[in-house]
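**User:** You know discrete backbone vocabularies at least as well as I do. Would you mind producing a protein record, from residues through to fold? Write it directly below this note and I will take it from there.

**Assistant:**
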Amino acid sequence: MSPRSDFEVLFEFVPAPMLIVRPSGELEAANASAREVLDGLRLGDVLPVQQAAEPELRRYLERCASCAATLPGTLFLQDDDGNLERHACHGARARLGGFPGRPLIILHLDGVGLGRRFGILASKLHDARRVMLERRRRTREMQALLREREDLLVRLEADAAARLAAERERDEVLTRLYRAGQDERRRLARDLHDHAGQHLVALNFGLRRLLPYLSGEDGRCELNRLLDQAQEVGQALRRVTLELRPAALDEFGFVTALRYLVEEWSRTTSVPTELQVSGAEIPLPAEHAITLYRITQEALNNVAKHAGLPSYVSIVLLFGAGRLTLTVDDDGLGFEADAASVNVLVTQGKLGLIGMRERMALIGGGLEIESSPGQGASVVARVRLGKDASGHE
């Protein structure tokens, strides 16, 4: 390693600010401490002093170069802003192997300059400590926020689990109530058919047997009136029984009962109605069958009440892979489908659509209503079916 490299290593790590200059004032080297104290030092430039002070600086440097002793002095150096800073120093002549043939002066700065360096270091340490404390404070705040977030997530998960459990319990209760209601409807329909219906038939026959025994015209007219009333009562009884539980649904199956319902509704309202069945028909669970039957019944009632005078009604029953879709279309007056929310329907008194949706939800299905003013309406009910024909899911 060259002598200059050795000197540079030692010179760089000297703790005091030191400069190596020529007698004319040009800077040859400066260690790290000097670069911290003095701003804007450039090698090869004259030390930054005021122009009027340059002769005094050169005279001081020439005295240092001509004397073997260390001479004290004072430097008034300018910073980057043009302000003067006072630096007490000691100058000494030096002959360094790394700078051959050139007389040099080593300036050792002390006093105010050294204090400024310590001030700079203290300011940096203060800033570093302030940043560290601020970082610790933010870290503590972040940890507190994370703990609050974790607590909130735990509470939200607990609330969600409790809500799901409550919804499942509610669905189970509603399902049991729905099944109990259907069972009661089935029992009432059977009792009306088996008892009230038979008694009404017997009464009808009994009245007819009285006709030969009546000789007066007034008696015959009164008996005929009673027979007409008995016939009206029988028709009303059949309608009530059909509303409670269609006998065809239990005796002939869902599709046949639905076809009978459609034909009877078309005959009563004089609206052309067709039923299309697509896909391979499979037996439905009892709850599915009665629910879809009631959905169709309610949809047809809505057409009769609100659709005006539609020219046709189309009912499509689509048996798909694990799914059954029931669609009821009409070309009546229609309505604004966006207004079919639960709250709006309740305020408008359209509770039938709400009941249809609730019935489909009880069997795990869904109901969609598509309509616009003057464009008719479509009611689409979808429900999943089990893999086996028995209806177990």
Summary: The beta strands are 18-21, 27-30, 71-78, 84-94, 104-110, 273-278, 313-320, 323-330, 366-371, 377-384. The mean pLDDT is 79. The chain has ten helices and ten strands. The first strand starts at residue 18 and ends at 21.
